[in-house]
TrEMBL record:
<feature type="active site">
    <location>
        <position position="255"/>
    </location>
</feature>
<dbReference type="InterPro" id="IPR016163">
    <property type="entry name" value="Ald_DH_C"/>
</dbReference>
<comment type="similarity">
    <text>Belongs to the aldehyde dehydrogenase family.</text>
</comment>
<dbReference type="InterPro" id="IPR016161">
    <property type="entry name" value="Ald_DH/histidinol_DH"/>
</dbReference>
<dbReference type="Pfam" id="PF00171">
    <property type="entry name" value="Aldedh"/>
</dbReference>
<dbReference type="InterPro" id="IPR016162">
    <property type="entry name" value="Ald_DH_N"/>
</dbReference>
<feature type="domain" description="Aldehyde dehydrogenase">
    <location>
        <begin position="16"/>
        <end position="482"/>
    </location>
</feature>
<protein>
    <submittedName>
        <fullName>2-hydroxymuconic semialdehyde dehydrogenase</fullName>
    </submittedName>
</protein>
<dbReference type="InterPro" id="IPR017628">
    <property type="entry name" value="OHmuconic_semiald_DH"/>
</dbReference>
<dbReference type="InterPro" id="IPR016160">
    <property type="entry name" value="Ald_DH_CS_CYS"/>
</dbReference>
<keyword id="KW-0520">NAD</keyword>
<dbReference type="InterPro" id="IPR015590">
    <property type="entry name" value="Aldehyde_DH_dom"/>
</dbReference>
<dbReference type="InterPro" id="IPR029510">
    <property type="entry name" value="Ald_DH_CS_GLU"/>
</dbReference>
<keyword id="KW-0560">Oxidoreductase</keyword>
<dbReference type="GO" id="GO:0016620">
    <property type="term" value="F:oxidoreductase activity, acting on the aldehyde or oxo group of donors, NAD or NADP as acceptor"/>
</dbReference>
């Protein structure tokens, strides 16, 4: 998307919808602050059209054999590969993330999502078992899984394509149709995906895109033609979505916020642990739900870890996202930067010592309008401080010392969130023990962000409801019917 007046359109029923004087919002480059396109905001009528198109397409797509659905997903994966550079460029322009990150993570994972769920749905079998009944009778019970129906897919701005395909691939694989609402800040790859899926042979109306802000999302999730909602975003927005669907008792899958902890024991190789911690704190400028914002370090190695992690932060190279040497990007918007800077002020008021960062970098006139912020580390805070309790969603972490395993388990679990944790130790018995004690959906030992797409993904508490991934996705995107036949 290059022209300032170029429109990013909605996709409904296999057609792109021209704005025709409709309302629009600016699509802003987070790195420069410049407007790069206009996003056509879907009104209630257009949302209704999209849901209607998805319902009409459902009759055909839900009856398409699994093998043929899997073939469409595999063709979509190949088509993304063929248009790889185009997807990378769109993702970088929308998010401001370094091109290396989009090239190595976001777009490859999107391709992998389609291939993985094509394989998973192809291999899925149904359950059948015999039941003994009174008076010597027997019955055969078997379970048939049918598509959930029309699914509302709402995805955030931090990993737009990765998270979109993580939901769309299994939803389509299971025979559902979808209406997607990407973030108004990062709309481009959802539209590119509409082109790819059409080229792959997906029936018109099985994949629809409606753009807009929270009001568009509320219209979509509140529509009577929606059979389920999958949402990734903030805990506050997830609560609103739940309220919207409650009266119609629709199933929901929520992956929400996190205030994730890392635990570093004193038997680690400090260099190896800090290399992993640097990724978990600063990847995507800290704008990943799985990023670490609380680092608990055993006292014997606290100073060494703090110093080494601060050195890693100083070595990050901000710059133009399309520059191959850039290793860290801006925040998604200047509005989000104001929120993060507010937490910087709260931390300093609470008595934090700033090891590194704490402000806004000067990157010259070309990038002066962007949402840049310095990677930041604090010491001197504790679990009572807001900067340690509330999700910030930026390149920031508080480092807190601890003395015993029991103490740190209590500190790490002292949160309303429960998404992820990482444990760094050379004692694997302790690693397993502590990982199982974490009140989280995912716990890593001596690594971070390493996932098999067949494993369940999700969180506890304010971090969400339900799981997706592998069989968990198949279960959410389908409804089981048990059939019992007396023999």
């Amino acid at each position: 998307m290059t022209g300032k007046q170029e429109w990013i359109r909605n996709a409904v029923g296999g057609q792109f919808v021209d704005p025709d004087g409709g309302r629009g919002v600016d699509n802003v480059d987070p790195a420069t602050g410049r407007v790069i396109a206009r996003v056509h905001v879907a009104d209630e009528h257009l949302v209704d059209r999209a849901v209607g198109a998805a319902n009409r397409s459902l009759h055909t797509w839900s009856r398409t054999p699994v093998r043929e659905r899997a073939d469409v997903l595999r063709r979509a994966a190949r088509r993304i590969e063929e248009r790889f550079a185009e997807f990378v460029a769109a993702e970088v322009a929308d998010t401001g993330k370094p091109i290396r990150l989009a090239r190595e993570l976001d777009v490859p994972r999107a391709i992998a999502n389609f291939r993985a769920f094509a394989d998973i749905v192809s291999a899925a079998g149904e359950q059948a078992f015999f039941t003994d009944l009174p008076l010597g009778r027997q019955a055969l019970n078997y379970t048939v899984r049918k598509p959930l129906g029309v699914v509302a897919v709402i995805v955030p701005w931090n990993l737009p394509l990765l998270l979109l395909t993580w939901k769309v691939a299994p939803a389509l694989a299971c025979g559902n149709t979808v209406v997607v609402k990407p973030s108004e800040l990062t709309p481009s790859t959802a539209v590119l995906l509409a082109e790819v899926l059409s080229e792959a042979g997906l029936p018109a109306g099985a994949y629809n895109v409606v753009h807009g802000d929270g009001s568009t999302g509320a219209t979509l999730t509140g529509h009577r033609g929606i059979d389920g909602v999958t949402f990734t975003g903030s805990s506050a927005t997830g609560s609103k979505v739940m309220t919207t669907v409650a009266s119609r008792v629709r199933p929901v899958s929520f992956e929400l916020g996190g205030k994730n902890a890392a635990i570093v024991f004193d038997d680690v190789d400090v260099e190896e642990a800090v290399a992993g911690l640097s990724r978990s704190v600063f990847t995507n400028t800290g704008q990943v739900c799985l990023c670490t914002e609380r680092v608990y370090v055993q006292r014997n190695v606290f100073d060494d870890v703090a110093a080494a992690l601060a050195d890693r932060a100083r070595a990050l190279r901000p710059g133009h996202p399309f520059d191959e040497t850039t290793t860290t990007g801006p925040l998604i918007s200047r509005e989000h930067r104001r929120k993060v800077l507010d937490y910087f002020a709260l931390a300093e008021t609470a008595g934090a010592t700033v090891l590194v960062g704490g402000g806004v970098p000067d990157l010259g006139p070309e990038l002066a309008g962007g949402a840049w912020i310095e990677p930041t580390l604090w010491t001197g805070l504790n679990n009572a401080d807001r900067a340690v309790r509330e999700e910030i969603f930026g390149p920031v972490a508080a480092l807190v010392p601890f003395d015993s395993e029991r103490e740190v388990i209590g500190l790490a679990n002292d949160t309303d969130y429960g998404l992820a944790a990482s444990i760094w130790t050379n004692d694997l018995r302790r690693g397993h023990r502590v990982a199982q004690a974490m009140h989280v959906g995912m716990a890593w030992i001596n690594t971070w962000f390493l996932r098999d797409l067949r494993s369940p993904f999700g969180g506890m508490g304010l971090s969400g409801i339900g799981r997706e991934g592998g069989a968990a996705s198949l279960h959410f995107y389908t409804e089981p019917t048990n059939v019992c036949v007396q023999l």
